[in-house]
Amino acid sequence: MQKIINPSINQWQSLCERPALPQLDVQELVQQIFTEIKRNGDEAVKKYTGFFDDALIENVKVSAEAIEAAAQQIPQDLKQAIQLAKSNIEQFHASQQEQKKVIETTPGVECWRESRPIDRVGIYIPGGSAPLFSTVLMLGIPAKIAGCKEIVLCSPPDKNGNINPAILYTAQLVGITAVYAIGGIQAIGALAIGTESITKVDKIFGPGNQYVTAAKQAALNYGVAIDLPAGPSEVLVITDATCNPDFVAADLLSQAEHGADSQVILLSDSEGVTDAVIKALQQQTEALPRKETVLKCLQNSKAIVLATINDCVNFSNLYAPEHLIIASDSAESFVNLITTAGSVFLGNYSCESAGDYASGTNHTLPTNGYAKSYSGVSLDSFVKKITFQKISAAGLQNIGPAIELMAAAEQLQAHKNAVTIRLKSLNNV
Amino acid sequence: MQKIINPSINQWQSLCERPALPQLDVQELVQQIFTEIKRNGDEAVKKYTGFFDDALIENVKVSAEAIEAAAQQIPQDLKQAIQLAKSNIEQFHASQQEQKKVIETTPGVECWRESRPIDRVGIYIPGGSAPLFSTVLMLGIPAKIAGCKEIVLCSPPDKNGNINPAILYTAQLVGITAVYAIGGIQAIGALAIGTESITKVDKIFGPGNQYVTAAKQAALNYGVAIDLPAGPSEVLVITDATCNPDFVAADLLSQAEHGADSQVILLSDSEGVTDAVIKALQQQTEALPRKETVLKCLQNSKAIVLATINDCVNFSNLYAPEHLIIASDSAESFVNLITTAGSVFLGNYSCESAGDYASGTNHTLPTNGYAKSYSGVSLDSFVKKITFQKISAAGLQNIGPAIELMAAAEQLQAHKNAVTIRLKSLNNV
């Protein structure tokens, strides 16, 4: 971990820069697979599943029996843990439902918004060694609360054609309507285009490797929306003398274990605290199964000492972290200063892991600086907010003359006419 | 206008298809201009302004004096009309502010969201014959309510280097912080990259031609967000025996005058009403200054008769119109059936023009079928909603064991450790 003491404010911008990501040029491959899916449907999806996942699958759709059987394999204590997380995530996301508020902007002119679910959503869950069933909770629960009619899930099969049972159990628990044992570009292509067995969806959610990311970008050209731009996960921790350096080190490591390209930033108003955290980092790293990944990540990481905690928050706003932890007893006093972050963890017991799994907030968040302009996934991500207006004859008489003047000034005569013809008919009554 | 009587439900999907848009391949041009802006800043922007707009500008930024002088040129009645529209748009968008709701998902675990403005936003207003000052209202007002620090506006200059005074007046009225007399690819490039005089922004809003659209897409690669995918404007009108065919025809024409590629759909449960509207269309078209454009648009347009108004609403949901007018005295009884639209106009006096200018709703809406997954521009478009969590020691004791189990099952040992180290320290107290 690189230690930087009191950098001048001119250096902040460059300290905030993320390392350039290796660009993998897979556009052509994505186009080829999408084109084949468009032509051959399921057959193409199965072909590429054989090719990339080394799995021969007869049906892309996972059967109800297989899902039922998977649930039997999950230990009771893990089931209870997942259910506790589900309950918290449900409460928080249900609180994001918007109440209808009718605003009479002018007498006789009523405007309001109503939310409607996005009909069909697709959730992508990566495969590999770690089964990310927590992401099934984070995406499936708000989709269900929103009322999405079809909530389909794709996850790559292992060599025997199976999906990890914890993913299947969680999918069933949250009410996923169909699970497909497919992954990678071919899964995103199937969701974007549709096949004989796979629903074409309106929006695709979920994390993935560079192939999945490129495929999600390509899906945009098929009229499908996506959740967020992709990027490596990151945490920024602000510490003062009231933090516990061991806790802080553990939080930094929980981010570092995600991958060598994860971003970990430590800020403090105290060099002593910084050194204590760095020491704890070294000690704790030794015991980790993903030690090598962690060490690579820490090589790119920075510990920066600034004059005050206010400066630390200002630096953080410029960096725009996905996760921001304020490890301080007075964390709450800095909330109003925070302008840019994905999710914020206040105080010494609010660890990022809590938000990753079970506090109730969503863990699908803007990274790579996108917190400057994007929010994390929430109930809003699964609905459209439609505006309505109801204008009475009297209402149109109140605002009509203004509309006529503005439309005429924009040289849109037919826009003006739509008002004029109504006002005339009212004058003739 | 093509008339279709009682199409079978199998035909609905193809009836909903938009005509394919001519793809203009301007990617290379966009890349070239962006690269030059990155290298040469203002100089490159001025060069392309000379090239595309035939205007030699010394300063890209419009002076305070020029803005002041423009305001003097606007007639008093138009100023009052713009101010009435502003007041209504302000009221409706201010009502979209979210109240902070702290949810205690488990004792000791508090979660909430807080909105923060996107710091820097750019608004693009096209040039050409019609000065779209109404779009300045629709984008500038919510940006101001959100609290965006920098709200900059770009609009192409005329040959004398000037921007239409109505645009400048409205920009000043709503509190735009800087106006640049630049347009097209070079304006979007300047906003996405930044130059000596032009702020690099976090998000770009506003309509534009194919060059602007391509440039907005390219801006995404510079970490900048955009408002909505682009597409031609469209209206779908549902009519029954209680509609006024003259009003309906006027509404269809107000859409048709936008351009030959505008989409206009008429639905009814009555062939008689349909014929009456078509007749009124023919009569009203004759008097329009944009008659030729309107006639081209109507060639691509459809009038479809279905069995019931319920069927009409179902068809509309499939079509996903940008604007939906229900021209019926009982319009409100269909609101709950509507699942997909950008903005909805209820009853015989709620013309689309009202929402385009002055009712209070936003006129920047998802088109080309994107209403399936996108909402129109609202206050939400100018803020990030940051999640916060505050977990007490007792709170972590309540949810910590569940987090440990889930993290272990996902093979993320460091995630588990972040909880374990805290729980251990609490047990040792």
Automatic annotation (TrEMBL), chains A, B:
UniProt-annotated catalytic positions: 322-323
NCBIfam families linked: hisD
The EC number(s) this enzyme carries: 1.1.1.23
Amino-acid positions noted as binding substrate in the UniProt annotation, renumbered to this chain: 233, 255, 258, 323, 356, 410, 415
UniProt: NAD(+) binding residues: 124, 186, 209
Family designation: Belongs to the histidinol dehydrogenase family.
Alphabetic keyword roster: Amino-acid biosynthesis, Histidine biosynthesis, Metal-binding, NAD, Oxidoreductase, Zinc
Name by which UniProt lists this protein: Histidinol dehydrogenase
Protein's UniProt keywords contain Hydrolase: no
InterPro entries, per database record: Ald_DH/histidinol_DH, Histidinol_DH_CS, Histidinol_DH_monofunct, Hstdl_DH
Species assigned in the record: Flavobacterium subsaxonicum WB 4.1-42 = DSM 21790
